[in-house]
Write a structure and sequence with these properties.
The structure holds two protein chains of two kinds. Chain A contains no helices and eleven strands. Chain A is an all-beta fold. In chain A, the strands form two sheets. In chain A, strands 2, 4, 5, 9, 10 and 11 form a six-stranded mixed β-sheet that branches. Chain A has a five-stranded antiparallel β-sheet with strand order 1-3-8-7-6, with no helix packed on it. In chain A, a hairpin with a 5-residue loop joins strand 4 and strand 5. By secondary structure, chain B is mainly β. Chain B is built from no helices and eleven strands. Chain B is globular. Chain B starts with a strand and ends with a strand. The chains are: A mainly beta, B mainly beta. At the A-B interface, strand 4, strand 5, strand 9 and strand 10 of A face strand 5, strand 6, strand 9 and strand 10 of B.
Chain lengths: 114, 114
């Protein structure tokens, strides 16, 4: 069974700092990995999708890396802003008896203070 | 291009009742998945439908059932509601049963069972 762990569970930083969110998974035979953002009580917004054959993806101030062999991914946020405050979820997809279901971590709750 | 829409946004039901949640997939997407997210947890996979057939199921009891219609919209039905069914229910769609292009999520339905 795929286990996904996100560290830290919560993080508070002052505006302007660069930060790294960590995600680890136990089964390296993943199909791809997706990072999402979730605002309180809302749905999920996709940030970055990394295929199993890729090492990283970038979008604006966000950069996600993938090391499949070690079962790790990081989400790097540059020059953080108060609007970045949200919960960030990591999810891995693998072909299993459940189709290509996403396995989620519990998320990292980020607070960026002005 | 419209995204994934879910209805209703909020719902209150009594223990033992039945509930139906609805989801319209993003245009061009033929696969719909449903997830349950309890407070403070990551989403948990319920099941997935591809071209009107269930092709993956998570660890949920049979009282959780679903349908996908020819226009690829979907319903999640939950019978004999229990207090622990209180959660945010998320629908996600993708352009194929494999997740190569990632998943697009709706804003969710908040179900409260009293």
């Amino acid at each position: 069974k795929q286990e996904v762990t996100q560290i830290p569970a919560a993080l508070s930083v002052p505006e302007g700092e660069n930060l790294v969110l960590n995600c680890s998974f136990t089964d390296s035979a993943i199909y791809n990995l997706q990072w999402f953002r979730q605002d309180p009580g809302k749905g999920l917004t996709s940030l970055l999708l990394i295929q199993s054959s890729q090492r990283e993806q970038t979008s604006g101030r966000l950069n996600a890396s993938l090391d499949k062999s070690s079962g790790r991914s990081t989400l790097y946020i540059a020059a953080s802003q108060p609007g970045d405050s949200a919960t960030y979820l990591c999810a891995v997809s693998l072909n299993s008896n459940s189709g290509y279901a996403l396995n989620f971590g519990k998320g990292t709750s980020l607070l960026v203070t002005p | 291009e419209t995204g994934v829409t879910q209805s209703p946004t909020h719902l209150i039901k009594t223990r033992g009742q039945q509930v139906t949640l609805r989801c319209s997939s993003q245009s061009g997407h033929n696969t719909v998945s449903w997830y349950q997210q309890a407070l403070g947890q990551g989403p948990q996979f319920i099941f997935q439908y591809y071209r009107e057939e269930e092709n993956g199921r998570g660890n949920f009891p049979p009282r959780f059932s679903g349908l996908q219609f020819p226009n690829y919209s979907s319903e999640l039905n939950v019978n004999a509601l229990e207090l622990d069914d209180s959660a945010l229910y998320l629908c996600a769609s993708s352009p194929g049963q494999a997740s190569f292009y990632g998943y697009t999520f709706g804003s969710g339905t908040r179900l409260t069972v009293v």
